[in-house]
Amino acid sequence: MDDVERRKELADFLKTRRRRLSPMDVGLPPGVRRKTPGLRREEVAQLASVGVTWYTWLEQGRDIHVSQQILESLALALQLSQVERAHLFSLAQHPIVPALLMPREVVSPFLQRFLDQLEPGPAYITGRRWDLLAWNRAAREVLGDFRALNEEKRNIVWFIFTDQEFRRRVVDWEGVAQRVLAQFRVSCGQWPGDPRFADLIEQLKQSSPEFRLWWPRHEIRGRQDGCKELIHPRVGRLLLEHTTFQVNEAPDLKVVVYLAAPQTDTAVKIQRLLRGELLRM
User: Fold this and answer.
1) Rounded distance, CA 111 to CA 106, Å?
2) Is 278 helix (H, G, I), strand (E, B) or coil?
3) CA 218, 224, 229, 232 torsion: positive or negative?
4) Which residue(s) pair with 241 in the sheet?
5) Which of 34, 44, 124, 176 is most exposed by smallest CB count within 10 Å?
6) 242: β partners
7) Looking at residue 149, what DSSP letter applies?
8) From CA 233, how far away is CA 236, in angstroms rounded?
9) Cβ neighbours of 187 (radius 10 Å)
């Protein structure tokens, strides 16, 4: 992402956040009938105590200086969440990190053994770009065979948006994909100097109409605990809770762990999958 693209990303982010708020959300009178949804630029400028012209330039992607104090004011005016605020700061400050200086991501033998010991719970490890670096057999059996992915495409975002078998298998695919996209966007803002992010985004735009449609919305969220329901072709319904852990020694690595939901037969079904047994549907 060069400076022009980064400023455009910042401008688009501000526009989407402005348009989701109404005057009543921020304590302003509704005023006359509006042609477009959301706050007007002058209202955001008023709330953030900045000039209307200056804020207009910011939304136009012009090359202007933005101080930390102004960013704080904009975050408050637009009622940004903590994750959104961090994303705003990342886009505005342009923290360039040369890709050549980024350390190679390595999963230690201990971490691989840790994944294996989590079975029958599926688990995998992703890197800074959400590339799939390691997984256990349960993850392959339940989610899909990551080994079948071309090494350059071995990425969980790519897998979710382009793998048709996973799409058929997961219940509420759209909800799952949109949440992952919003979380992935935060990572993109944290590594603006890595051209591999830009390459992945362009390939996803070309390969997935949903990604192409949703990417301009600028939805972001932090990684959260959740629950996925799948209909597995061999064992039927699986209900899994999941969370994400950060590796202290390598903070770019994230361990995603799934556990069978309590009061379900999910764990038994996964164990039978691992034993190679077929169940009658």
Assistant:
1) 10
2) coil
3) positive
4) 227, 259
5) 34
6) 226, 258
7) S
8) 6
9) 21
Type of residue numbered 153: K
Containing 84, the helix (H) or strand (E) segment is helix 82-93
Torsion over CA: 97, 103, 107, 110 (sign): negative
What is the set of domains in the chain, with CATH numbers? 3-94 (1.10.260.40), 109-274 (3.30.450.180)
* pLDDT at res. 90: 85
pLDDT tens-digit map of 13-67: 999 999 999 888 888 877 667 777 789 899 999 999 899 999 999 999 998 888 8
| 3-class SS of residue 152 | helix
Mean pLDDT, the chain, integer: 88
Instruction: Work out the pLDDT band at 100, boundaries 50, 70, 90.
Output: very low
Q: What's the one-letter identity of residue 258?
A: Y
Look-up of token digits 């164990």: 271
Contact 165, 231 (CB under 8 A): no
Measured distance CA(224)–CA(31) in Å, rounded: 38
120-160 pLDDT per residue, tens? 999 999 999 999 999 999 999 999 999 989 888 999 999 99
Tokens describing residue 221? 């969220």
> CA 202, 78, 197 angle in degrees (round to 5)?
15
Rg, Å, the chain Cα set:
22
Cβ-based neighbours of 258, under 8 Å, separated by 6 or more: 121, 122, 123, 138, 139, 142, 228, 240, 241, 242
